[in-house]
Amino acid sequence: MLPETLVCLLTSSIVFAQTTQQLSLNAVASFNTLTLPNPPSFSIPSNDNKLTVSVALCTDSNTAPRFFLSNASTTKNPGSSGGEGVIEIALQNGRGNWTGLFENGVLAVESNGAQVSFDVGVSDSGPIHEVLNDLPFFGDTTSNQALLFSPPFAKPFVQVPTYPNYTLPIASLAFTDTPPSSPPNYTLVLSPTSSSSLTSGPQTGCFLSSQNITGTIANQSLWLRDEEGWRVQWLLEGLSPSTNYTAYAIQDGTKVAGPIYFATKSPSFPCPLVAFLPFCPAVSHAVPLPAPPSGTIYDSTNLPQTNLTSALLTYLTNFTVTLTTFACGRDHYSPLVECSDCQREYRKWLCAVSFSRCGEPSLGSPSAFTAFPATPTQTGLSALKSLMPPIPGIGGGPSQKQKQQQQVVLSALLPQTTPRNPSLPEMDYTLLLPCLETCTAVDRACPPFLLFQCPTRKFNAAASYGVGYVDGADGDEGEGVAGVAQDRWGNVWCHLG
């Protein structure tokens, strides 16, 4: 016969399990502190592997509930008073998680008087609620439109040509991959930055998804922008001119990507957006063209075919024919790159220089741009503007470190009247120069016999490209004055293609 104390303990465990709601594995459960059970506890399913319990606040409140875990059979209602094996899930920006083994797991909630909705997820493959490392991608804007992308997913299958078949993608199609059958469900959340409560509230999918979106989503579709993977592409309309916006992409209602920031152009901005081009999939920016004859942007259905598109496809076809005369895949010219890499980088460069990108100075720094072309011998230091005026009559001057701290990065913007691409019409606009790295990527990826060469930093590169923004003066990757072509804060220094 079992001891009486053990019988009582087993009986109480069975009763507790029968009266306590069990959380489901790999699922999300929604609750409200006003309607919690008594006691406010939930049992965690047993599993031989580690489980992650994550919580996310869905409403903003000055007082947040507290969440406690226990895996001890003697602790049925863990809380702030402590107890055997009690662990608190610490919340940061409205979310928190804890991972471990559970046999008699219990999650308890202390409301602390808060009236808050919250979600709980239990998973055997990492936290259900989290902030993703990858950010949404900003394409470009007009005065009332924007092109935005989700983080990449589902990398495409790229067929590397092998001997003796040196087939590369045709000029009119950059990728032959088909869209994934089960893509993540992404939701775009957008609001003017000045009036936005997005960043001040819980940074959780359920809170952000409940906020109103600004503008109208005119198009939402899957798009393979580059080799990083498929993305969800959004075309937004009905935005306000000269306005800063904050944007998030929410995956499956629980995972947060962002925030990123961007600004719409001024009401007089002259250039329309161009996107949805299968031969130039990375083109998603404003181009110096007249207003589109049909629709609100240019795409593959209404883009002028006579000059702009036909010339680009001819160049790419001829380049591919010349490239495939080399024994790609048999007599390797590099241990790092193939002929397919060469064609891909050349396509990016050709699309970047063919579809010139319009721009204008940022709202916060209207004078922070290069108003005149750089001299032929200017290097990346032309991207810096000193904020420290000279002090007359005082010797010594600031140190080099102080000078660097008192400098602002200038976007590579140049006023234009005559287009650099003769297939584009003449019009007054401000050109955002392509990054020099768009050209050097081709130089690095292609075999020497093609004789593809980029202008050098020491002589005339700065006259045609944004120099020194991404890579350093000696070519060190990411060591330029900005380190990137654009950042999450809406700064676009040069056009990477």
Automatic annotation (TrEMBL):
Protein name: Uncharacterized protein
GO molecular function: calcium channel activity
UniProt keyword terms in alphabetical order: Signal
Pfam family, one: Mid1
GO biological process: calcium ion import across plasma membrane
Position of the signal peptide: 1-17
Organism field: Laccaria amethystina LaAM-08-1
InterPro entries: MID1/Yam8 (IPR024338)
